[in-house]
Amino acid sequence: MIAFLVRRVLLVVPTLFVIGSLTFFLVRLAPGGPFQSEKDVPKAALEQMQRAYGLDRPLGEQYVRFLSHAAVGDFGPSYKYPQRQVRDIIAEGFAVSAELGGWALLLAVLIGVPLGVVAAVKQNRFADHAAMAFALAGVSIPNFVLGPALVLVFSLGLYWLPPALWTGPSSRVLPVLTLAAAYVAYIARLTRAGMLEVLGADFVRTARAKGLAERTVVVRHALRLGVLPVVSYLGPAAARILMGSIVVEQIFAIPGLGRQLVNAAFSRDYTLVLGIVLFYASFLLVLNLVVDVLYTRLDPRVELS
Amino acid sequence: MTAQSRSHARPGVRLAAALVLALAAAACAPERDARDARDARWFGSIRPPAANVLRFNNGTEPETTDPSVMSGQPDGMIARILFEGLTEYDPQTLLPVPGQAYRWETSADGLTYTFHLRPNLVWSDGSPLTAHDFVWSWRRVLSPSTASRAAALMYPIVNAEAFNKGTLADSTRLGLAAPDDSTFVVTLRAPTPWLLFLTSYYTFVPVPRACIEKHGARWTEPGKIVNNGAFSLVSHRQNAKYVFAKNPKYWAASEVKLDGIEAYCVDDLNTSTNLYKAGVIDWNPSGYIPSPFLPYVRGFADYTTGEFQATYFYGVNCTRPPFDDPRVRRALNMAIDREAIARDLLKGTRRAWGRLTPSGYPGYDGPPHVPFAPDSARAELARAGFPGGRGFPKFTILFNTSEDHRRIAEAVQAMWKRELNVPVELQNMEWASFQQASTTLRYDVARRSWIGDYLDPSTFLTLLTTGNGNNRSGWSDPEYDRLLRESEREVDPVKRAALLRTAEARALASSPFLPIYHYSTHELIKPYVKGIFHTALDVHPLSRVWIDRDWRQHEPIASGARR
């Protein structure tokens, strides 16, 4: 177990190195630069800005400097927002994205898992069809349709909830619902499939034969294994959902990390793009590791090696 | 599923369907069932905010809060809330009214301006604000190490250009002086009739020396920043909002009726308009209503429109054959049916426009517009060696990715094909790539637009001078440059306007730019917000804005009778 963890952590370093280096050169291949503007930037000002950011140095030197600073998590100031440090922008944006994603993920699990269990237990009956129809709708309606539809009804029609912004508890409702919908649906389907497989297994028949109540069989015995596909899905899903949804953040004008990354790429904010990409990569790697460890806790058949 | 079980499901389905319909109906007719029938005249909620605060969308996140460095509309709005220059804009006409200076004199030759500051001016931290602060702040803008993007606006000042470009190191030779604490003297290298517009401009506001020297680049953060305008910065959250509170130290604090301002940073046009309709913001400024939506909101009483001093045009790359031939450019110019674009495509939300400078410059009557003259266009093209469009090489209209730009490019493409029989293709690029292509002259024809900085035609006409960084067409005409230089030295406003008019006529005849339309502003202002008006530069001083909770009593009687 310890050896496994050490090896996995050691693997993170070269992975991040490759991702960081690729991003460093790819972002510079894109035409245009961070100081370009519709209005002409005076030559003297442009040179001054480039000097201030070390952009006048040879690319190799810039690369080495980037690596040595990135190693300690320092990406310097943003190019687009010169008064702000990349580190602060990431911290601020991630706090918001993680809160939005956290609520959405919680909602998705709380609704999706029971829905899947009900569908499996009542297989091919009305409850199953209803739950799966709901899941199908959730997966197929894209969030850029669902979000505005919810806004149209609850904000512009009924005036119940704010149509956007990230200000009070009421402003959380619509973006969380929008973001959660697809995950609810997917988790319900995964749970149903997992449960169906487990409900037919020998140990469930044994549990039933012992005369346990159906409720106990389902919740105490079957669910523990039936939910495994959901657990393995949750790792990457959590990484994606916590890092921020570009679409939902845009529709609801939420100051999250997803919107920052897109804007940074469009404005060629090299330091900010690199910072967010590396942060995202490390976050993903760590979460995958957590899922692997969690797996052994849930399924005694899995061993870490 | 059997027929039996399906019929069981029906009541539930029906209930759900009824619910969905009810919600949809509510969504479609939000105000119709409101008790007051007059509500239907307004777009969405008309409930004033709980606090005495103006809430509006400031659009894209500003890049910086430092007025000396910034360039851009959202940045400028924040600067004008926090700082005040020697003069201030009149909220309707934008003509200069006294700001930090209460009076000023101009010398007879128009080269020396003497400003007298109000007595007892203070910064928000209580320290005195003197003429020396202005000298220091303007010098900071011009200092090469500040890397100000708007420094060129100060070039009319003696030695400013040389100092900014680094060829003159001695800052004491700038035409700036403070003979005493309350007198600020500016010496110009040429008469600059628009100087008193510039003194209202954000680049020209005083910035707090002590605060900047103490905190460096982070001086504009909440808690650190010191300012001299009507409101002070309370908090700022990137991509979310700026919160301002009334500055009790402002010289006219007793005239400031708002307790504060909340400026949101919402870049999505649909979201911005939704926020306005739901009553979360009280003002949706120009540029934040989706253009397909304009014909619809036009019918509401809280919609305001007017001319905006900006023009939309196509730049032609004059360094690439066959576009180096003015006859070809003229042919393209005369084959654009601007009226059709404005009428059919833009549904009358903007005016067709056939010259470079927009309308509304005091004392300036521009040259006649480029006509839509397909026959003359074909004749010009034939003279250039392409009769009937034969042998004309395939070329491209370049635009930055946007549905609005695409529709116009498609229309122009069709017109050029129809009238001139030339092969035109369209190409879109995302913003940064587009900027790169247009600044480095890697295009044939490119979408451009320009917004005036101040109320004078020179803010447009200097674009086309040789070597101007915003020219981006490769066009160079020594006679045009000479006319503009001469206009800079001309003190008589009538003679000056005539010089500029001749220059613009020359440019239109040579057609490096193909004008298309005149911009308009389109904004939504709640009926209880008083003091925000349409202005020609879309600049809005907010210090005297107020929330009128009894706005219905102040409505004209006639509208009440409409019930």
Number of helices of chain A: 13
Gyration radius from CA atoms of chain B, angstroms: 27 Å
- Looking at the overall shape, the CATH architecture of chain A is Orthogonal Bundle
Span from first to last CA of chain B? Answer: 56 Å
Overall pLDDT of chain B, averaged?
90
Unreliable spans of chain B are 1-38, 559-563
Mean pLDDT over the full residue set of chain A: 88
Largest sheet geometry of chain A: none
Number of strands of chain B: 19
Per CATH, the class of chain A reads Mainly Alpha
User: For the record, what is the CATH homologous superfamily label of the largest domain in chain B?
Assistant: Dipeptide-binding Protein, Domain 3
CATH class category label of the largest domain in chain B: Alpha Beta
Q: What is the number of independent domains of chain A?
A: 1
Structural class of chain A: mainly alpha
- What form of chain A results from the Cα inertia axes? flat
Give the class of chain B from helix and strand content and strand pairing: alpha+beta
**Number of folding domains of chain B?**
3
Terminal CA distance of chain A reads 7 Å
